[in-house]
Amino acid sequence: MAYRAEFRCLAGCEGVSIPLTQPTYRCPRCRGLFEVVHDLAALADRSPAEWTRLFDDRYKRTAWPYGSGVWGKREWVAPEVPDDLVVSMDEGGTNLFWAERYGRVLGLGDLWVKLCGNSHTGSFKDLGMTVLVSVVRQAIREGLRVRAIACASTGDTSASLAAYGAAAGLPVVVLLPRGKVSTAQLVQPLASGAKVLALDTDFDGCMAIVQRLADEGLVYLANSMNALRLEGQKTVAFEIVQQFDWQVPDWIVLPSGNLGNASALHAGFRMLRDLGVTARMPRLAIAQAAAANPLYRAWTAGLREVTPVEAQPTLATAIQIGSPVSAPRAIRALEAMDGVVEQASEEELSEAAARADRSGMYACPHTGVALAVLEKLVAKGTVRPEDRVVVISTASGLKFTEFKVRYHDRAIAGLPCAQANPPIEMPADFGRVVDEIAG
Q: CATH says 96-119+229-395 is which class?
């Protein structure tokens, strides 16, 4: 049976059904967001056991394109993209790290960290970009003319789009807030040949401009406002369950700024349940930096509409977003997954990341936000000692060397950096070295 997927209005407007190859980002009737909807009746031609066996047989093999953690589940993602148009860099298949030592500190024996930063460009954004760029190639074959694929970014999206665009031979334009991304994040799109525009604004200002460019047909939009991105990112849910031998954890703790990833994880866990592979979904905890917390403010006030705020500077630069595009999607995810929202201060995220590092992790500041929120939820009793918890680590800590150096130099203004471990400078004297080791 042929499998297919299409864009449909998230709000359920009747008669709105659009092919994935058509560049469209908002419902023509209500101007709301889209979601990708699959033909579940067609997918039911295989039993749950047949699907899991198929996915296990493909997992991390070399037969193109199934070695990818995304394309190994292609029927559930973008089933109509031909093999020769897939742009893949073996994304996905990342380590589900048992955080045994760190979990013991919190009183959790079943704590895991999904290391999504162990990917080609160092972040989970690769999972969505492989799908988006592959579908763009399919659309071009069908006659679409694309001047450039473009995104606004706080760093990771631009790195991923630039790399996948380069692999596909497609022009890429990225809009970054000048001086507000790490050096490692800035150099990645430059190295890939993208046109990098560093604007004197924040992410929300960049996003406003790129949306207008897309609305006027000048670029193809690659931000998570485009529901294609979420299709690849939802495979994180598939992988977590697969890595637990097709069992569902109790909690997912997710750092989030633009909130697309919350929707992606919900879509993945919902699809697993709807196709009978699992019987339930985990609970969802969305973690926000206190400096950029519009969802936290709305959710704790009992509201189901998110009012934009002016995001303040935060060490967790990738989630320094005050006007999250995917807020309606995230609200739906929270409601469906019995979710909670919590925030972390700059000190809390820094110290949580440092505690995790002392157990062997090397956490990026955004993962630090999630870990700090987990610590709060354990202290409140919301997360119980017996729960199986998965924290989503969205990027490699290696992208944020400046954050680590400043912490251990105690150079982050206003923070005690209580676990700093600076180098000990001393003469090249054997006896002094022995004394220091004996300490």
A: alpha beta
